[in-house]
Design a protein that fits this description.
Pfam families: COMM_domain, COMMD8_HN. This is COMM domain-containing protein 8. InterPro entries: COMM, COMMD4/6/7/8, COMMD8_HN. It comes from Aplysia californica. There is one protein chain. The protein is of the alpha+beta class. It folds into 2 domains: 108 residues, no CATH class; 70 residues, Nuclear Transport Factor 2, Chain: A, CATH 3.10.450. A 3-stranded antiparallel β-sheet has the order 1-2-3. Helix 1 packs across helix 3 and helix 2 runs parallel beside helix 5. The longest helix is centred in the middle third of the chain and has 27 residues. The chain is elongated.
Length: 187
C-alpha cells in the first residue's frame, strides 16, 4: 500500500538501526515544524548526501501525510508497507510525539497560501436617499473598509459597499469559514 517513492527509500532508511532511526525521525520532525535546515554532517557516516536527501524527503512526506490525512496508528503501519516492524513502530511513535506541532505547521503552511492578512477594519452605516434611477430610494448601505497587509508589508485598503442582503451573505460566508477553521484546529 506504500507509495513507490517511500518503498524505494526503505532499504536506504534501514541502513541505520531501528534505535538510531528515532533520532533521525525526531530531527526531521523538528526541522519541518521549525522551518529549520538539518545539517547533513551528522548523518553522512550512515548515508551519502543523496541518500540523506531521500531519507529526509520521504520521512517528511510520511509525517505530512499521516498528520494531514489524520491516519490512525494502524493506517500508518499499513501505509508503510514493507518497512520492517521496528522501524514502523519508531516512526509511529515519533509522529504521535510531534503530532500537535506537525498539525500546527501544516495549518500555518495552508493559511500562508494567501500571504495577505487583515490588519484592521472599520464600518459605516449610510442611508442612500436617491439614485440616478429612483428619486426616493432610502436604502441602508454598509461601507466596510478593510486594511489588508500584503506579504511584502505593503498595506492596501479595500472598500466594500453592501446592502442588507449582500451583508447577510458576507456574514454567512465568514461564519462558514470560522467553522471550518475551528474544525481544522480541533481535529
Amino acid at each position: 500500500m506504500a507509495d513507490e517513492k517511500w518503498e524505494s527509500a526503505f532499504p536506504v532508511l534501514c541502513k541505520t538501526s531501528s534505535a538510531d532511526i528515532g533520532n533521525v525521525c525526531h530531527a526531521v520532525a523538528e526541522s519541518f515544524c521549525q522551518d529549520d535546515v538539518i545539517s547533513a554532517d551528522a548523518f553522512l557516516s550512515t548515508w551519502t548526501l543523496e541518500e540523506w536527501w531521500q531519507v529526509r524527503s520521504v520521512l517528511t512526506d510520511i509525517m505530512r501525510s499521516a498528520v494531514g490525512k489524520g491516519w490512525s496508528k494502524e493506517k500508518i503501519s499499513e501505509e508503510l508497507g514493507s518497512l520492517d516492524e521496528p522501524y514502523k513502530k519508531v516512526l509511529i511513535d515519533v509522529i504521535n510525539v510531534h503530532e500537535a506541532s506537525l498539525r500546527k505547521k501544516l495549518l500555518l503552511d495552508t493559511t500562508a497560501v494567501s500571504h495577505a492578512v487583515l490588519s484592521d477594519f472599520d464600518w459605516k452605516l449610510q442611508l442612500a436617499m436617491s439614485s440616478d434611477k429612483l428619486a426616493q430610494l432610502q436604502e441602508l448601505l454598509v461601507q466596510l473598509d478593510l486594511d489588508v497587509r500584503e506579504a511584502g508589508g505593503d498595506r492596501k485598503r479595500v472598500i466594500l459597499e453592501m446592502d442588507k442582503s449582500e451583508l447577510g451573505r458576507l456574514i454567512s460566508s465568514l461564519e462558514a469559514c470560522g467553522k471550518s477553521v475551528q474544525q481544522m484546529t480541533t481535529s
